[in-house]
């Protein structure tokens, strides 16, 4: 009798597992979608039935969502490309006018102001293009060391840090990942650039790369204005600036949006933690290229 009960239990467990497996697949796919991987599909191989119909309908919905997001990205990229030409033409015209020997000092000053505005618009367009590119699946994947990219970003921002009297310290350990080198470089440059830009005079920036067992991390911490924890999620929204709290108009408000978009496109994420004395600690987590398999 006991053997019959055990056998019945085993059969029931096996049957329930087979019946629930398609639903588990749908659930797992939904979780991956929440992680911004719209290119995933259930593609359920099962006989016709209610569960099969549900899975196919779910895949059809993902197709439409994927196309909608791709269309949005194409629109942003196309609009940005169309704007590049007239902005470049404006810059050329202003530079030519300023280079004339008979140009008045007032004209030169006006030209410098116009060039500054033009440069900001160019940075905004480049940021929009980067954001649009990061919103789609990464296809160009190569071995990259976050420590090397961080070192390059520190060199690029050294002049701005000196001008703002911000002291930068770094502790860079090899942190190998696989990804798009251009996007990852932009991610780290945005992190370091934001940390320098939104800081106090005589403030500090700390940059660390950390090789964990299954992931690589880069953490950029800075001094700056006090930020409430409930404000942190909004910092990753496009066009939301930290300057809303510190009263400066620099930056496009896309820095942290690009950071998170690039991290998530590589299977990682970006988190921000306010410091009690002011400023932020932004942590980017990415899968390691040499992580041991489970």
Would you write up a description of this structure?
It is a single chain. It is built from eight helices and seven strands, in the order αααβαββαββαααββ. It has 294 residues and is α+β, with helices and mostly antiparallel strands. It has two domains: 1-137; 142-287, Heat Shock Protein 90 (2-Layer Sandwich). Strands 2-4-5-7-6 form a five-stranded mixed beta sheet, covered by helices on one side. Strands 1-3 form a two-stranded antiparallel ribbon. One of its GO terms (cellular component) is plasma membrane. Its EC number is 2.7.13.3. InterPro entries: HAMP_dom, HATPase_C_sf, HATPase_dom, His_kinase_dom, HisK_dim/P_dom, HisK_dim/P_sf, Sig_transdc_His_kin-like_C, TCS_sensor_his_kinase. This is histidine kinase.
Structural class: alpha+beta
Q: Quick one: CATH class of the largest domain?
A: Alpha Beta
Biggest sheet layout: 5 strands, mixed
Our Rg estimate from Cα atoms comes to 25 Å
Provide the CATH architecture of the largest domain.
2-Layer Sandwich
Low-confidence stretches: 244-249
Q: What general form does the structure show?
A: globular
What is the assembly state of the chains in this entry? single chain
> What is the H/E order?
HHHEHEEHEEHHHEE
């Amino acid at each position: 009798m006991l053997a019959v009960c055990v056998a019945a239990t085993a059969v029931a467990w096996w049957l329930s597992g087979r019946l629930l497996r398609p639903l588990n697949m749908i659930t797992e796919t939904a979780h991956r979608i929440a992680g911004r991987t719209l290119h995933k599909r259930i593609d359920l191989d099962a006989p016709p039935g209610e569960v099969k119909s549900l899975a196919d309908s779910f895949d059809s919905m993902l197709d439409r969502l994927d196309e909608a997001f791709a269309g949005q990205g194409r629109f942003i990229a196309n609009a940005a490309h169309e704007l590049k030409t007239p902005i470049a033409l404006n810059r050329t015209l202003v530079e030519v006018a300023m280079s004339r020997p008979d140009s008045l000092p007032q004209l030169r000053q006006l030209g410098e102001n116009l060039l500054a505005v033009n440069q900001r618009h160019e940075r905004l367009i480049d940021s929009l293009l980067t954001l649009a590119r990061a919103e789609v699946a990464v296809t160009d994947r190569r071995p990259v060391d976050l420590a090397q990219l961080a070192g390059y970003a520190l060199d690029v921002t050294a002049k701005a840090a000196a001008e703002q009297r911000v002291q930068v310290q770094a502790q860079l350990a090899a942190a190998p990942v696989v990804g798009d080198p251009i996007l990852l470089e932009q991610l780290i440059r945005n992190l370091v650039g934001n940390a320098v830009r939104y800081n106090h005079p005589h403030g500090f920036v700390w940059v660390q790369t950390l090789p964990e067992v299954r992931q690589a991390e880069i953490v950029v911490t800075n001094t700056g204005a006090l930020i409430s924890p409930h404000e942190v999620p909004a910092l990753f929204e496009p066009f939301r600036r930290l300057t809303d709290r510190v009263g400066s108009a620099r930056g496009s408000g896309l820095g942290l949006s690009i950071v998170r978009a690039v991290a998530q496109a590589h299977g990682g994420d970006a988190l921000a933690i306010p410091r009690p004395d002011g400023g932020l600690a932004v942590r980017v987590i990415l899968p390691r290229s040499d992580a041991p398999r489970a």
